[in-house]
Hints:
The protein is of the alpha/beta class. The chain has helices at 7-10, 12-22, 40-47, 116-122, 149-159, 175-185, and strands spanning 32-36, 60-64, 71-73, 76-82, 91-99, 102-108, 127-131, 164-167, 190-192.
Amino acid sequence: MISHLHPDHCVDLAGLHVAVKWDPRGWNAGRIPLYGPSGLHSYLNRSHAMPEGHSMETEFVFNVWQERQSVTVGPFTVTPFEVEHPCPEPYALRVEFDGPMGSSVLTYSGDTDACDALVEAARDADLFLCEAAYEEGREDHLRGIHLTGYRAGQAAAQANVHQLLLTHLPVWNSPTKARREGISAFSGPVGIAEPGYTYKVVPANVTISGALARPSTAD
């Protein structure tokens, strides 16, 4: 499920295509379903310097997001919301699941600045996985591109989410500062996404071990 066609969010599909098409051991799992913006097939062709008419449909099943039209993928219902980012068709994704503990919602912001569609996508989410690529006071002149930790916290508060998990921090950002910005705008638990860590998405009324803790500003 591809939020938008910037390389840090989708270029590894080019390597996946090679693995499916050319692995000498064979690929026995069938074509891989892809969901993304309408230009995804063309983008992959260009990543391999292939002509526009070349087809990768022997490896992938291409499905195009339609604004706020839900799709069913396995046990999940996924709804794309078009957000604010400088590329064609950038989406936040709302993922809903009805499981044995009840209904739960994960919202992923994709890349976006603050906008009404982001709040709608995240409404009452149990876990809001939200980008925070910018910092307050550093990129204030750049709008319509990325969020800060503070603006992510504002969106989380407006959407009444249960937990906020910040992601997409570039290496020059301070995770501590991003988290402090988040908790200055959002009263719920705030965390920073960690590589290799597993996060459980459960209904807000379910208590589990390993839940996000609200950090102190001294952390």
